[in-house]
Specification:
Radius of gyration: 17 Å
Length: about 90
Amino acid sequence: MRSVTATSADALDLFPGLPDWLAATKAQSAETAGFLAGAALAGLHPLQTHAAVPQALWRARLALMAAEASARFEARREGPAALRDA
């Protein structure tokens, strides 16, 4: 029996996008911001843990975004390309 694996595009079709109320809501307080952040993470979790998502690429992208945020916080001028190449 041949094994069939889903492509990344097929995996995206399996999961709905974020709910409209989540994307359109602006946080008025710290509690609301925390709730909205948790709801967004709960919506991303099934997609991130799906077998068709390349985990190494996901982790590399998150690491690059974290390095970019850290460089901005330290007022350094390196952009994402320079950080990636380093």
